[in-house]
Each structure stands twice: as C-alpha cells, then as structure tokens.
Design goal:
- The structure is a single chain.
- The protein has about 160 residues and is mainly beta.
- The protein has one domain.
- About 15% of the residues lie in helices and about 70% in strands.
- The longest helix has 23 residues.
- It is elongated, with a radius of gyration of 19 Å.
- The N terminus is likely disordered.
C-alpha cells in the first residue's frame, strides 16, 4: 500500500488496497479505495475514489466522488461531483458530474453534463446532453458531406 504519499510502481493483487495521499501506476485487488491520491490503472471488483484521480478503472462497481477519471469500464458506475472522459457501464449514474462520452444500458443524470450519450434507457433531471445518438449521426453525416465536397473542389 502507498500510504506515505509516495509513488509505487505497482501494487500486487490483494484483498483490499487503500491509497491515501499517494499514488500507484497499477493496482489489482478485490477492493480499492483511493482518498486524495491517484492511480493510472485499477482492476478490481469495487473501486472507490474520493478527492482523487484514476486513469483507467475496470471493475464491477466504480464510485468517484469529487474526483476525476479518464476511462471507467464497469457494470455500475457512479460519479458524484466528478468528471470523466469516457464511461462505459451497464448502469451509469451521474450526480452533479460531467462526462465526455457515456455508453450505458441505463443512464441516470442529475444536474450534470454529457458530451456524447448512447444509452438504451435515459433518466435526466437538469441534465444537459450535447449529442445523443441522432444528433451525433446528423453531425457525422454533415462533416462527411463537407469533407467530400472539399475533396471534390480540391481535385479541380
């Protein structure tokens, strides 16, 4: 465990790992708790981050509170007062959080923002979604058309 604020290269697979005011490159355990620290890569059954950051989290359950995450791949992902670049989950819940891309079976957002959302079921209260599937398709078609026209004009 890295509890002294130092950076470890890698944590071996354990039952439970706690990181306080420190960080690791990679950690694999059943439960991982990060408080005011960070990890580049985490693989676990349960991951909890409070006021910390994580690069890549692969787990059954991921909970990030007042922190940041690069990529979250989980069955259940919960972000509260947090930000994530990509969230891929069976169930995603964002509470006063922001995400660049969310791909989920079920997404629940309260007072949050999502750049691109693909979800079978969506529940939102005060949610702002910039691109849903239809808008993203229309945007992509428009960009493709413009690029095709530019290519035609360039040949002349």
């Amino acid at each position: 465990m890295s509890e002294n604020g130092g950076w470890s290269k890698e944590e071996p697979g354990n039952e439970s790992v706690t990181i306080r005011q420190g960080g690791v490159r990679s950690v694999s355990a059943r439960e991982v708790l990060i408080r005011q620290g960070g990890a580049l890569s985490v693989q676990a059954d349960e991951v909890e981050v409070k006021q910390g950051g994580i690069g890549l989290a692969r787990a059954h359950e991921v909970e990030v509170t007042a922190g940041t995450a690069g990529v979250v791949i989980a069955d259940e992902a919960e972000l509260e007062l947090s930000a994530a670049t990509i969230v891929v989950a069976r169930e995603a819940e964002l509470d006063q959080a922001a995400a660049g891309v969310v791909v989920a079976g079920s997404a629940t957002v309260r007072d949050g923002a999502i750049g691109f959302l693909v979800a079978r079921e969506f529940k939102g209260e005060g949610a702002r979604v910039l691109f849903g599937p239809q808008a993203a398709f229309a945007f992509g078609a428009g960009v493709g058309l413009v690029l095709a026209l530019l290519r035609l004009l360039r040949r002349r």
